[in-house]
């Protein structure tokens, strides 16, 4: 048996999550919370990337989700009316290194996890496939009036119903459930921060536009964002959050997370 010896270098880099909360309006329900999450990190700089551009901007992944919940927080802060439940806005770090920020939040929560009734996770909502786009690398990118929705029915029929009903009564985008499948070979359910809520018994829904030619590449630039569509989905998510915040009863966990989704 051959013996192989290798050496490596471990570099520790400090980072942090950013958390804000707007208190609910109902004295009895404001102790319960909806957590909106997005990751603000990306993959950084690669000196070995081909060409002159070595910076991975991450405008879609996940600059789009980061600014979406920032806009939602601003709108809610300015509103004279508030949902009955409190609303938490969570920007996590370390997602690209293994969902580290959301894992830390779950282990050392800023608010009691038992009081978190739902997680709404927004990761990559800025790009869309135009009708004339024939690039095979964009074949799984959502269309201009389409969004992939993952997890809404996995644990709570209430969450699934609210998510669907709000969309149909507002802008009626196409909610594609293609990846809302425990056997999804892409394993998208495991690949964003909602996962660390779901495995802790908290119903979660993940909004996602699908991968594209610039996924984890230097071409993920702000000028490629479909801002009209991004505003539409952000407004729809905002109303979904509000509806969940005003429910008389917290979304009931009436389905067990499928066994194949319990371990990454």
Structure keywords:
single chain, 264 residues, alpha/beta, Aminopeptidase, seven-stranded mixed beta sheet, two-stranded antiparallel sheet, 5 helices, 9 strands, 25% helix, 16% strand, globular
Q: pLDDT below 50 for ≥5 consecutive residues: which ranges? A: none
Please report the total strand number as a whole number: 9
CA-based gyration radius: 19 Å
Helix count? 5
What's the CATH architecture name? 3-Layer(aba) Sandwich
Distance between the termini: 32 Å
Any idea of the CATH class? Answer: Alpha Beta
Protein structure class = alpha/beta
Q: Into which percentage range does the β-strand content fall?
A: 15-25%
SSE order: EEEEHEHEEHEHEH
Q: What's the story with the biggest beta sheet?
A: 7 strands, mixed
Could you tell me the CATH topology label: Aminopeptidase
